[in-house]
Amino acid sequence: MNSNQPEIEAGEWLARLDRNDPSAADIAAFDRWKATDPRHAAAYARLAATWQALDRLRAIRPSADEPIDNDYLNAVSQHHRSDPLHCSFPDAPQHAAPAPQDPQPHRSSESMRDFSSYPMKESPLYNSQLSRSHRPLQLSSRLRPWFFTSMAASLIVAIAYLWVMHTVGGPTTFSTSIGGFQRIVLEDRSTIELNTDSEVRVALTPQLRRVELVRGEAIFEVAHDAVRPFIVSAGRTAVRAVGTKFDVRRLGNSVEVTVDEGKVAVGEPSLLESRADLLAISIPLSAGQSALASGSGVQLKQLPKREMARKLAWQNQMLVFDSDTLADVAAQFNRYNMRQLVITDPNLATLRIGGYFRPTNLDAFISVLQSDFGISVNSDGNRLLLATSKIN
Amino acid sequence: MNPIERNTWLAKEILVHERALRGYLSRFFKNVADVEDVVQETYARLLSLSDSAWMAVRNWHAFLFASARNVALDRIRKARVVSLDALAEMGSADVLDQTPSADDALNARQELALLLETIASLPDRCREALTLRKLYGLSQREIAERLAISESTVEKHVAYGVRLCAERMFVKRGATRKPDENSALGRKGNSDEQ
């Protein structure tokens, strides 16, 4: 590669000026640099011509139905190379197909149409991985009584409906405290169910239904309105829907989106709001799928029905466990209670637990731990210390 | 000529011959750096042509080689140790012998294939950044967010990527050697040509 000083500097200038808004100072400095030496201008012109030539790649831009693929050109180029006489490129996808088993998604344009085309490399963001959970739901037999009483309890939960009339524009905030639950019915008849320790800001306008999940978790049941998209943003991730039901949960820097009914698009908030070529800038998710978006990418998962029911059980103020570790179960309970379960015996962390529980009925869970699992529970202020009982 | 037209002209009429031009110049200069300097100087001369001179050029390929020859002669004469061999070689090699080879000109499909090969040969992160920038039209800021890297890193990928692309497209057409990812950032100024 050319590596003399004008060439290197020209590359740096081109990249600098290619930024969103090069400053006036940058432009002035660039002009000075260019005028200093004709070879500067020449090196820059050569790279600028190269840069411009790359714009021709837009001719093979994927259809607007396809989500952005960071490594699209690599895949296309491999396809192209393997079939040099037939220079064709993937067309519009038929939208998300069921989970394929083929682990090599890159070899044909066919595979680029389905979900498996997203896993490209380990590193790129917004690449997705599809996996299936085969684990059947197994209710621990000794917890079955709990299952029935808890189910009964869930049926008699009275849900308070909150009718909210919005003035156009101004956002309205709704929140729950730890252990809280709230169901909100918006004026368009969409509903939001807020899980424990959660907060949303709602702004309905004639063009857009915009909800910000500030913290926690919420289930959105979106009333169909094709002209007024419903966009839920959570940090750097957003979900766009027209009419569907889905769950969004913030977990630290990650955001988990689970779709119960219909289809949504997952992407970057400002893009989802402003761009019309929706599917080119987002990942489609349909019923039965979940996406975990984090700094390192979006992971897609196909959820079996039971797993889905389990994930959304909180809307009935239930927690459903299925051979989950005590550590995970404790973490779930800790979301809903001021009193925090603390596992002091590392051996207990991996204990498997199944069953249905009311998240706010911590005492009931504790008594199961004591009677059925031989776990001792000692209070230390707001901490409940779990240890292996000496008697067993 | 506006910058876009100039870039188009440069790519279509001049840069497509760069590989051949370098081959021609390498007969007189053993050092790759000298060849690079002469090419750059030649481009500088073409770019500084007045509009009327520019309009008068009928054959850019011939003009390019003639200009390069003049630049090369200047350089040889100015060298502290003049290479008589090089001067003799220069005098005997008729620049008009340098006719455009068939593979200098590309049809649209070949050009697209070349662009794809070029992009595919970039280091991974660099390739992703250029894909997002050029194929999807994301801004550097959006790319930074998407790849969870800093904007200045994206800028470095662009700076390095465009140089590599120029290399692949106009110097080593079709070469798909993947350079070391480490060389994408940080290492500057060393030729990986040697």
Spans of chain B of 5+ residues with little confidence (pLDDT < 50)?
Answer: 174-194
Report the major sheet of chain A.
8 strands, mixed
Shape of chain B: elongated
Number of strands of chain A: 20
Spatial strand arrangement across the major sheet of chain A: 1-3-4-7-10-11-14-15
What CATH architecture label of the largest domain in chain A applies? Sandwich
From the alpha-carbon coordinates, what is the Rg of chain B to the nearest angstrom?
19 Å
Number of individual domains of chain B: 2
Question: Average pLDDT of chain B, to the nearest integer?
Answer: 78
Indicate the percent of residues in helices of chain B.
55-70%
Report what the structure shows.
The complex is a heterodimer of chains A (392) and B (194). Chain A has 392 residues and is α+β, with helices and mostly antiparallel strands. Chain A has 4 domains: 5-57; 65-124, no CATH class; 158-310, Sandwich (Jelly Rolls); 317-388, 3-Layer(bab) Sandwich (Phage tail protein beta-alpha-beta fold). Chain A has 10 helices and 20 strands. In chain A, the strands form 4 sheets. Chain A has an 8-stranded mixed beta sheet with strand order 1-3-4-7-10-11-14-15, with no helix packed on it. Chain A has a 7-stranded mixed beta sheet with strand order 2-5-6-8-9-12-13. Chain A has a 3-stranded mixed beta sheet with strand order 17-20-19. The longest helix of chain A has 16 residues, at 38-53. The longest helix of chain B has 21 residues, at 151-171. Chain B has 2 domains: 3-102; 108-180, Winged helix-like DNA-binding domain superfamily/Winged helix DNA-binding domain (Arc Repressor Mutant, subunit A, Orthogonal Bundle). Chain B has 10 helices and no strands. Chain B is 64% helix and 0% strand. At the A-B interface, helix 1, helix 3 and helix 4 of A face helix 1, helix 3, helix 7, helix 8 and helix 9 of B.
Spell out the key features of this protein.
heterodimer, A: 392 residues, alpha+beta, Jelly Rolls, seven-stranded mixed β-sheet, 10 helices, 28% strand, B: mainly alpha, Arc Repressor Mutant, subunit A, 2 domains, disordered C terminus
